[in-house]
């Protein structure tokens, strides 16, 4: 079994604070600095744009492509396209019969800006579903970096899902890539297990703390004789100074502390440090589209 460490960094290019504001300060101000850190360390990544983010920030999309990274899709408006795992204010999930048209529209908008067919996807909040996977297959996608390992805790390596149940292995052509979590620790979050997740530890606790989780997960995979694939998710708004609250329309949004904690320069510093520490372990960084193509060709990444 190959013991190489394969790292997939995905940025969810969405409104500031996810679905809770209509603003794109993060996309507009953080894209270039994030790309500078990638270039400094000579690594590649994938940037998942909502359709709305792409058409409102075409310069961001074009810079990502010009600097050698992948542009993927992240739904149309950062809505819940999959099965919700817990309640989020102001969020109502799409009906299964609405999913295909929604992703089709998002795909068309991203393509209109990038001039390329997006072939990698990630659901907002990592809330996927069988309807999403089947829709992606019809639209020509080859990878879905959605599976939240912290919650489902069954799939621990990339797999091709069943068209009847995306949580099980099957014969879909869309490679499902789990976002890793610390499955060894005892969770204090009941059935959800959100404290097992890697996000947002790189900035709330720091890169050194997250590296402890990474090494634990590597050992976990080695004990299972599985390939070492570490999929991460980040957001551009984490790399700007966020407001404590946002007033617009007829309400005020006050994010929980963990959303805004250590965003800005500290997050960028720890992000850079995280990359350096992963490289020191001998990790190889991949764009998700390139990773999926190699996986399909080899049966396992080599």
Automatic annotation (TrEMBL):
> Can you provide one Gene Ontology molecular function annotated for this UniProt record?
hydrolase activity, acting on carbon-nitrogen (but not peptide) bonds
Q: Where is the NodB homology domain?
A: 15-302
An example GO BP is:
carbohydrate metabolic process
Q: Which InterPro entries match?
A: Glyco_hydro/deAcase_b/a-brl, NODB_dom
Q: Which PANTHER family does the entry mention? A: POLYSACCHARIDE DEACETYLASE FAMILY PROTEIN (AFU_ORTHOLOGUE AFUA_6G05030) (PTHR47561:SF1)
Q: What is this protein called?
A: Polysaccharide deacetylase
From which organism does this entry originate? Answer: Pseudogracilibacillus auburnensis
């Amino acid at each position: 079994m190959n013991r190489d460490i394969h790292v997939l960094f995905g940025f969810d290019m969405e409104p500031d604070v996810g679905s809770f504001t209509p603003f794109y300060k993060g996309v507009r101000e953080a894209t270039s600095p994030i790309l500078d850190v990638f270039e400094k360390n000579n690594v590649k990544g994938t940037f998942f744009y909502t359709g709305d983010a792409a058409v409102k920030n075409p310069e961001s999309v074009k810079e990502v492509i010009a600097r050698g990274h992948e542009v993927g899709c992240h739904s149309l408006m950062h809505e819940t396209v999959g099965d919700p795992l817990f309640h989020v204010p102001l969020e109502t999930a799409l009906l299964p019969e609405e999913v295909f048209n929604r992703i089709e529209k998002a795909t068309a908008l991203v393509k209109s800006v990038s001039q390329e067919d997006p072939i990698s996807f990630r659901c907002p909040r990592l809330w996927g579903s069988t309807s999403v996977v089947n829709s992606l297959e019809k639209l020509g996608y080859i990878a879905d970096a959605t599976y939240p390992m912290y919650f489902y805790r069954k799939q621990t390596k990339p797999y091709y899902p069943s068209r009847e149940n995306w949580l099980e292995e099957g014969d879909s052509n869309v490679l499902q890539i789990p976002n890793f979590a610390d499955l060894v620790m005892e969770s204090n979050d009941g059935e959800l297990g959100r404290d097992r997740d890697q996000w947002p530890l790189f900035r709330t606790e720091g890169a050194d703390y997250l590296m402890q989780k990474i090494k634990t997960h590597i050992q976990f995979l080695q004990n299972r004789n599985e390939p070492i694939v570490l999929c991460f998710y980040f957001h551009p708004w984490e790399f700007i100074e966020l407001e404590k609250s946002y007033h617009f329309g007829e309400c005020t949004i006050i994010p929980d502390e963990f959303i805004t904690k250590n965003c800005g320069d500290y997050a960028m510093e720890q992000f850079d440090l995280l990359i350096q520490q992963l490289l020191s372990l001998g990790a190889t960084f991949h764009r998700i589209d390139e990773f999926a193509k190699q996986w399909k060709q080899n049966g396992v990444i080599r």
